[in-house]
Amino acid sequence: MEIVVDSHTHTIASGHAYSTIIENAQASKAKGLKLLCTTDHAPEMPGAPHYWFFNNQRVLPRFLHEVGILRGCEANTKNIDGELDLPPSSYQHLDWVIASFHEPVFPPSTEAEHTQALINVIKSGKVDVLGHLGNPNYPFDIKAVMEWAREYNVAIEVNNTSLTGKSRKGSDIHCSKIVEIGKEVGVFFTTGSDAHFCEEIARLDLAKALLEKHNVDEEKIISTSTSRFLNFLLLRGKERIEEFEELY
């Protein structure tokens, strides 16, 4: 299995990351990626940029160092109603929106409340993927959320950083169960390094190994080809990106 898209990365704009978009693109090219999703933290995460940062991503070239750039954001799930910390005006400027739980924005609660929040996020239609779901601080009804994700064509991220044990410790067991049940339900998966430094870009070996362990069909892993990834965005109702025509 070859992974050609890193769907979760950060730049210095996130406030606690250490590389620029140029440095991330250079690392992406060196490591053989075809597409890079730049997904800095949304405004309610401490140190994150103002929403104008996301609304202005149209100034980014579609290719940097021969790597296709997808304009994105890692939004914060704020409450059980599934509200996110991006204003309505932002979504039209973004190709790829991740929704994640982060302790400073949504303090861990009960399994029932986490489940309801995730389902409402999915039903909102605003997000393309659920980020680092393996965090043991946020248990949820895996099968229920996977079924809603399948129905609404929301991808499930396999987050490589979560599997390293360096952050969100204990995620590995939860991630394995999520992939196991997600495969049974028939969801789409994607792979994100969650890089906060350019050398971490495309570090997806643990995510890849977990997907292979559960024998997930490659056609269900959208980051395995530019065509799968970009056509998933069309499935999500996004507009075709003219500059990427040869990648569809």
TrEMBL record:
Pfam families: PHP (PF02811). GO terms for biological process: bacterial-type flagellum-dependent swarming motility. Residues 5-79 form the Polymerase/histidinol phosphatase N-terminal domain. This is Phosphatase. Its cofactor is Zn(2+). It comes from Vibrio ouci. GO terms for cellular component: cytosol. Binds 3 Zn(2+) ions per subunit. Keywords: Hydrolase, Metal-binding, Zinc. One of its GO terms (molecular function) is phosphatase activity. SMART domains: POLIIIAc. Zn(2+) 3 binds at residues 74, 102, 132. Belongs to the PHP family. InterPro entries: Phosphatase_YcdX_put, PHP_dom, PHP_phosphatase, Pol/His_phosphatase_N, Pol/histidinol_Pase-like. Zn(2+) 2 binds at residues 16, 41, 196. Zn(2+) 1 binds at residues 8, 10, 74, 194.
